[in-house]
Amino acid sequence: PEVLADFHQQMGDCTTCHVSQKGPTDDNLTHENQQCVSCHGSLNDLAAQDAEKKLKVSPHKSHLIGDIACTTCHKGHEKSVAYCDACHSFGFDMPFGGKWERKFVPVDVNKEAQDKAIAAGPRDTTDVVIVGSGGAGLAAAVSAHENGVKVILLEKEPIAGGNTKLAAGGMNAAETKFQAKLGIQDKVSIMIDDTMKGGHNVNDPALVKVLAEDSSDSIDWLTSLGADMSDVGRMGGASVNRAHRPTGGAGVGAHVAQVLYTAAVKSGADMRFNSRVVRILEDAAGNATGVLVEGKYTGYYVIKAKAVIMATGGFAKNNERVAKYDPALKGFAATNHPGATGDGLDVAMAAGAATRDLKYIQAHPTWSPVGGVMVTEAVRGNGAILVNREGDRFVNEITTRDKASAAILKQTGESAFLVFDDSVRKSLKKIENYIHLGIVNQGNTLADLAAQLKMPAAELEKTVAAYNSYVKSGKDTQFERPNLPRELATAPYYAIEVKPAVHHSMGGLKIDTQAEVLNKDGKTIKGLFAAGEATGGVHGANRLGGNAISDIVTFGRIAGASAAKYVKGN
Ligand code: FAD
Ligand code: MEZ
């Protein structure tokens, strides 16, 4: 047998997996996944078996959110592939396995079949269709429900969470109760100034005002849904500590996404995976009236809706699109999930939406070429320094990302090392994940560490001693680093090789402060809303670390409420 279906057919006919000989009946593959579980056990059962086998990394234990269906990785009629290989390179030895590969398919292929599905009329009807199951889409779903309307949420990937589930360092918010508890003095006006300055003043000031003014309320809203946002750390370009995350500095995104996913499920949102939106449908006046969906297994079909929210995220994983807008980033790796291709932009633009700032694409300075994962800015925020192959610091480690990335690319080998000690490790839970992934060098002394990195030991010792003296005096006379949280003096010492990778698309759909999408004449497209990384204007030319999660929660909530208001008024 070549694929799983061949093998299973040896046990029976198509109904071993499917309801009938006709194959799948829904794109979530609900029945098929139940069949897998009934014979092989649940994901948790399989993870427990992996633990018994003492596997270092279990393919069944994941940081991804929601219910991960077996068919995400185990395919019936094609080679199986581990979804984790989209970012990691574990190369699990899977039964009937192949190699991870993803080609971008434009939304307007098969036009004839699409037109035929539209002519056939709607298969489903709802109040609001939300496109994308990242934080913006999930927040919109919860908020739309709170405002009394029915939701269908469509996600093209087999699992929920988009880039949101990967977010690490924190969610920026000013004047919060958690900052007050920690004695951190912050002001909404300082968050506005930091965001505008970091974005080179290209940002839409009205959107930035909403971002900062609503940020504390967004933290309270998440907390009311069950989130823990009590740890507050520093991100690049921020004047004070305002990046909120769970206790002990655990990753923010998987937690926030899980809380929103659970709330969305509880609200009764109809969530459909493997369901790509390829067109927005309009009436004669150009108002949005629904979407055309490409169900991976059920084919094209129409959902009629009174409002549509585009929460389709960014396009950093689509290097062809990235290089079109910023040729300097051609060939760069990306920190993003595989669905960050930007087809949501194509869909909205075809419906007349205007875009802005597409040329502004951000590289995150610290991506691990060994593990293929981003190493959170919080490691630097909590005290790590950046050191080049010569053993020297070369930049204020918590400057904005554009500056940090440019500085790393100027070093020998176009990469650098994040160097920290055991006190930094103990301050941030997220570091345990990097140790678990095997991307961290460890030495009992700085000389030990330098030997592993093939770096002059005396120079590294001198660099760390100088840095520690700045911590003691409270002033970094070399690079003016504004936060100096702790000396690097507790063995063992650690290093992670890092280099820039494409991380965030600042540009996107033009929206107003009510998350209504604007057309080229600056007028609202009735019934069309957007939120999150799919939009432009909030972050200007360069996003500050921690501002995206703030953006998606605040504007996702606004989009849900605005869409509900529109539905009720029409
Ligand atoms: P996403 O979460 O990406 O969700 C969009 C969803 O839409 C995806 O699931 C996608 O598959 C789906 N979709 C796209 N097109 C279609 C279509 N046509 N039909 C159906 N579905 C579609 N920001 C911070 O503020 N703090 C952090 O600590 C932080 N850490 C990060 C770490 C990493 C590794 C990455 C990659 C990003 C990080 N960011 C962080 C940025 C932040 O996570 C994202 O900008 C944000 O989560 C985007 O949310 P979103 O809901 O707009 O999009
Ligand atoms: O906002 C981000 O992208 C962020 C804080 C990422 C990170 O380094 O954790």
**Helix count, per DSSP?**
18
Mean pLDDT: 96
CATH architecture of the largest domain: 3-Layer(bba) Sandwich
Low-confidence stretches: none
Enumerate the distinct ligands: flavin-adenine dinucleotide, (2E)-2-methylbut-2-enedioic acid
The CATH C-level class name of the largest domain: Alpha Beta
Name of the CATH superfamily of the largest domain: FAD/NAD(P)-binding domain
Tally of structural domains: 4
Beta-strand percentage range: 15-25%
Helix proportion range: 25-40%
* Number of distinct beta strands: 18
Question: Can you walk through the features of this model?
Answer:
This protein has 570 residues and is α+β, with helices and mostly antiparallel strands. 33% of the residues lie in helices and 17% in strands. α16 crosses α17. (2E)-2-methylbut-2-enedioic acid (MEZ) binds next to α12.
Concise synopsis of the structure shown:
The chain has 570 residues and is an alpha+beta fold. It has 18 helices and 18 strands.
List the keywords.
single chain; 570 residues; alpha+beta; Flavocytochrome C3, Chain A, domain 2; FAD/NAD(P)-binding domain; 4 domains; eight-stranded mixed sheet; five-stranded antiparallel sheet; 18 helices; 18 strands; 33% helix; globular; binds flavin-adenine dinucleotide; binds (2E)-2-methylbut-2-enedioic acid
Topology record:
Elements: H1 4-9, H2 30-40, H3 43-52, H4 111-119, E1 122-131, H5 135-146, E2 151-154, E3 171-172, H6 177-181, H7 188-198, H8 205-224, E4 231-233, E5 243-245, H9 252-266, E6 270-272, E7 275-282, E8 288-295, E9 299-310, H10 319-325, H11 343-350, E10 355-356, E11 361-367, H12 377-381, E12 385-387, H13 401-409, E13 416-421, H14 422-427, H15 430-436, E14 441-443, H16 446-453, H17 457-473, E15 493-505, E16 508-509, E17 516-518, E18 524-530, H18 547-568
Parallel strand pairs: 1-2, 1-9, 2-6, 9-18
Antiparallel strand pairs: 3-5, 4-5, 7-8, 8-9, 10-16, 11-15, 12-13, 13-15, 14-15, 17-18
The structure holds flavin-adenine dinucleotide (FAD) and (2E)-2-methylbut-2-enedioic acid.
(2E)-2-methylbut-2-enedioic acid (MEZ) binds at residues 168-170, 235, 376-378, 545-546, 548.
